[in-house]
């Protein structure tokens, strides 16, 4: 199941802390879905790359108390570490936030988080919502949906969405070396990755770990892996989990709940949902067929 926790340290800087609906963490980043009360204010310094999307219209002011409140339609905002954020809101509404550490960004895309690299934006108080607002909202919605459904696709899928968000809000130099679409992992590199996948079958290996193993960026690893296998890392890892679990079911009498944990699923229900998604049959189907053929 998703690593759902309910912490509110970050939001203590708000006069009226919003209600935390969902809080999900992995090393280097944290996703939060919040519900705001009828009004309040904030004043703090951002310590991470902060990407936010308001899902409902509300009135907002930015800066000192003398600034006017303006109606803000659903839109996105981006701030960099070290940015001073102050303002207030009026009206109830929901929002989604992701806080990403500078170290995670550097590992994922090979770019430092700084005033020069972050494409800052404010909510659409004095501008019209645009395509970038929509893209950020769709990516955060995808994170929320995947987390809320129990993270059936695994951590690698979530990390892919986080990396896509990073690319949306950073100024990536057009002079940076491009990755050829035909580039593939060497047989030795692919072997190392597959060995790591198998050795961590019951765990949650990350894209950063795979990329670090090969000494490449996450972006390069994801593209080259797909060229080599025809599938993204998270899709391939899911298939290997299913294949491994199927073998355990067909060749033994281990309880399905134990099979699920050994194969890296959160629980038996997640394993069953993944089997139905990939194979269109439940895990118990292979126990029956295995015994029938014995």
UniProtKB/TrEMBL annotation:
<dbReference type="InterPro" id="IPR009057">
    <property type="entry name" value="Homeodomain-like_sf"/>
</dbReference>
<keyword id="KW-0804">Transcription</keyword>
<feature type="domain" description="HTH araC/xylS-type">
    <location>
        <begin position="191"/>
        <end position="289"/>
    </location>
</feature>
<dbReference type="GO" id="GO:0003700">
    <property type="term" value="F:DNA-binding transcription factor activity"/>
</dbReference>
<keyword id="KW-0805">Transcription regulation</keyword>
<dbReference type="InterPro" id="IPR050204">
    <property type="entry name" value="AraC_XylS_family_regulators"/>
</dbReference>
<dbReference type="InterPro" id="IPR018060">
    <property type="entry name" value="HTH_AraC"/>
</dbReference>
<keyword id="KW-0238">DNA-binding</keyword>
<dbReference type="GO" id="GO:0043565">
    <property type="term" value="F:sequence-specific DNA binding"/>
</dbReference>
<protein>
    <submittedName>
        <fullName>Helix-turn-helix transcriptional regulator</fullName>
    </submittedName>
</protein>
<dbReference type="Pfam" id="PF12833">
    <property type="entry name" value="HTH_18"/>
</dbReference>
């Amino acid at each position: 199941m998703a690593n759902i926790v309910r912490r509110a340290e970050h939001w203590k800087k708000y006069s009226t802390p919003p209600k935390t609906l969902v809080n999900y963490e992995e090393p280097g980043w944290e996703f939060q879905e919040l519900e705001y009360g009828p009004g309040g204010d904030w004043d703090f310094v951002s310590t991470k790359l902060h990407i936010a999307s308001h899902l409902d219209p509300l009135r907002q002011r930015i800066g000192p108390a003398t600034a006017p409140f303006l109606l803000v339609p659903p839109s996105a905002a981006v701030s960099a570490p070290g940015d001073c954020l102050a303002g207030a809101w009026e009206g109830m509404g929901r929002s989604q936030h992701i806080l990403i550490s500078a170290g995670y960004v550097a590992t994922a895309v090979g770019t430092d988080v700084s005033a020069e690299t972050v494409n800052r934006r404010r909510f659409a108080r004095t501008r019209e919502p645009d395509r970038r607002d929509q893209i950020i909202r769709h990516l955060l919605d995808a994170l929320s949906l995947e987390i809320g459904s129990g993270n059936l696709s695994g951590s690698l899928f979530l990390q892919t969405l986080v990396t896509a968000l990073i690319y949306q809000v950073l100024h990536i130099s057009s002079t940076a070396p491009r990755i050829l679409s035909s580039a593939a992992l060497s047989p030795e590199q692919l072997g190392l990755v597959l060995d790591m996948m198998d050795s961590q079958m019951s765990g949650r290996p990350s894209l950063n770990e795979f990329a670090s193993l090969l000494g490449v960026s996450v972006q390069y690893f994801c593209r080259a892996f797909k060229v080599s296998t025809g599938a993204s890392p998270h899709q391939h890892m899911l298939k290997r989990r299913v294949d491994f679990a199927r073998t355990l079911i067909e060749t033994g009498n281990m309880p399905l709940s134990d099979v699920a944990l050994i194969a890296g699923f959160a629980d038996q229900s997640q394993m069953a949902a993944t089997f139905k998604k990939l194979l269109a049959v439940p895990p118990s189907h292979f126990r029956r067929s295995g015994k029938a053929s014995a």
